[in-house]
Amino acid sequence: MASKDTHKDESGSLYKKAEKIYPREVHGLFAMWRSIGVLVLLGIYYIAPWLEWADRQAILLDLPNRKFYIFGLTFWPQDFFYFAVLLIIAAFALFFFTAIAGRLWCGYACPQTVWTEIFMWIERKIEGDRPQAMKLDKMPWNARKLRIKGTKHILWLLLAAYTGFTFVGYFTPIDHLTLRILDLSLGGWEWFWIIFYSFATWGNAGFMREQVCIYMCPYARFQSAMFDNDTLIISYDEKRGEPRGSRKRSEDPAEKGLGSCIDCTLCVQVCPTGIDIRNGLQYQCIACSACIDVCDSVMDKMGYEHGLIRYTTENAMQGKPAHILRPRILVYASALLLMAGALGYAIATRVPLEIDIIRDRTKLFHETSRGLIENVYLLQIINKDEQAHDYNLDVSGIEGVKAILKSNVIHIDKGNIAEIPLRLHVDPYDLKKRSSEVTITLQATDNPDIRIEEVTRFLGPTGRR
To answer: Within a domain: residue 1?
Structure first.
């Protein structure tokens, strides 16, 4: 029997079962900003697919046709460079805001936080705040408990299902998606992603919650590499708060030898990850600032000054000067401004036209009946614009080079790809070397700004005859 108990202790030391956390509802300045963030971000997510632009969905990632519509812009796979730069900008933004004020992203904008907030709001409306929810979970199952829990999960599943439906609506036109759901004619992959994303939302926001932040998110592990002694972090003022202890509002804490902390533990009760901020900054902290709001409300009731728990820096806590604007912040800010400006300029001035030149590899060159050297190419032209265009083609680089096309004007409808055969003829007398550069220029007849040049090689016999 003793051996069995020892085995239990050993297994318990290796793995501790996660206990459910019941965060108490909190009100205050930071809670207000967090609620605004949730409403804005969820509003964008749920409303954006329904917006129309011209004759199509405003934001549509059309994977089958390899077109990505963002309001008036159309991006193609060839524009992946812009997406790569955007990811780099996002990474630098994360470094920048983390270096300034810690895990702002986690506390206010992370999808896990945003959906968890709305799921907890539904839970509180159905089950009540922390004491009622804890009491409900402890009671045996009966009709009342089954009704309350069932109602909560039905609402959770409805929200999760609409979340999955909206997610797929970014890839399949959402009005068509709605009709196809109603008549059950969706394809297998669409059903898969709706169901998968729905259950992922339900599981992560409804059950796993802080476990995702603590164990699954890598950011929690490497965030400390971006902190320094001048980073604003949520901190408990130990010098002011200790020794902690309960007291009446009318009592002078100095006479009892106590600090400002009344040991109410409300800062622990409101924490969504269940930590005690009074033990110092921990990697589980997502910087939601709930402990600041609730502590300030307690200070108000006790007639004490705000700021027992506050945003501050390690240097400030140690009585040293704090420097918010410091070299690393200026470097991050400068890099962000430069990259964002360059990306914006590149997108604003990009030419909605792409050309790929493919040589005929079956024969390097051919001599025509008139004694001219001929090279054959296939032009793949993409009209990335939202309207059709006629294009003129011009070739330069070799004296007397002549382009042979089926038509002098190339017409391509909006968002279409055209494959145009092209033959180039050159008098061998004008060829100075075996391989010469030629520049193919394509320009829209109705807009001189839509113009693109591409260089290719013209091959022929060595030297002049």
So the answer is: no
Kindly state whether residues 339 and 361 are assigned to the same domain: no
Note the pTM of the prediction, 2 decimals.
0.83
Q: Tell me whether residue 280 is in a domain.
A: yes
Distance CA 378, CA 358 (A): 5
Domain for residue 152, yes or no? yes
Nearest to 55 by CA among 157, 175, 216: 175
User: Are 181 and 165 contacting, i.e. CB atoms less than 8 angstroms apart?
Assistant: yes
pLDDT score of 463 = 54
Please state, in angstroms and rounded to a whole number, the distance separating the CA atoms of residues 341 and 346.
Answer: 8
The pLDDT score that the predictor gives to residue 4 is: 40
User: Which residues lie below 8 Å from residue 273, measured CB to CB, with a gap of 6+?
Assistant: 21, 210, 213, 214, 284, 285, 286
pLDDT along the chain (465 residues), means of 10: 40 61 95 96 96 91 89 87 93 90 90 96 95 94 96 97 97 93 89 96 94 86 81 93 92 92 96 93 90 96 95 90 88 94 92 91 88 93 90 92 90 90 92 91 92 93 62
Tokens of 176: 């068509």
Name the residue range of residue 367's domain: 353-459
Nearest of 428, 454, 421, 420 to residue 374 by alpha carbon: 428
- Whether the CB-CB separation of 107 and 272 falls below 8 Å is answered with no
> What is the token pair recorded at 187?
């394809």
Does residue 410 share a domain with residue 272?
no
CATH number for the domain harbouring residue 397:
2.60.40.10
Q: For the chain, report the end-to-end CA distance as a whole number of angstroms.
A: 103
**Nearest residue to 265 via CA among 35, 17, 23, 18:** 23
Domain identity same for 322 and 443: no
What is the residue whose two structure tokens read 């007397």?
Answer: 400
Distance of alpha carbon 32 from alpha carbon 288, whole angstroms: 11
Q: Which of 118, 38, 113 is nearest to 273 (CA)?
A: 113
